[in-house]
Amino acid sequence: MIKSEADGLYHAHAAEMLAGCGISSWTHNSQSVHFTAKDPLGPYTRQAVAQPRFSHNPSATVLPDGSWLL
């Protein structure tokens, strides 16, 4: 997770399995989801799907210009 200087929230990205599928089909059924919280320990609120196509084990960083790289 990363604390945003812009909004003061903690932002996290996590892999989510689609349609209740199991880990055996992660290669074609996972997506990256964006969550935010006011406290680093949560609770976190699901915001949006950040990457709807195959995305597993996402990580994010803030670049020097303030933009986010997922």
Describe this structure in words.
This protein has 70 residues and is mostly beta strands. The chain has no helices and six strands. The protein has strands spanning 2-3, 10-17, 30-37, 45-51, 61-62, 68-69. It has a four-stranded antiparallel sheet with strand order 1-2-3-4, with no helix packed on it. Strands 5-6 form a two-stranded antiparallel ribbon. A hairpin with a 6-residue loop joins strand 1 and strand 2 (10-17). The mean pLDDT is 88.
User: What is the averaged pLDDT score?
Assistant: 88
User: How much β-strand is present in the residues?
Assistant: 35-45%
Spatial shape: globular
Alpha-beta classification: mainly beta
**Annotation field: number of helices:** 0
- Kindly, what is the distance between the CA atoms of the first and last residues, rounded to a whole number of angstroms? 12 Å
How many distinct beta strands?
Answer: 6
Overall radius of gyration: 13 Å
Strand order, largest beta sheet: 1-2-3-4
Characterize the quaternary organization of these chains: single chain
Q: What is the helical fraction, as a range of percent?
A: under 10%
Ranges where pLDDT stays below 50 over 5 or more residues in a row are none
What sequence of helices (H) and strands (E) makes up the elements? EEEEEE
How would you sum up the major sheet?
4 strands, antiparallel
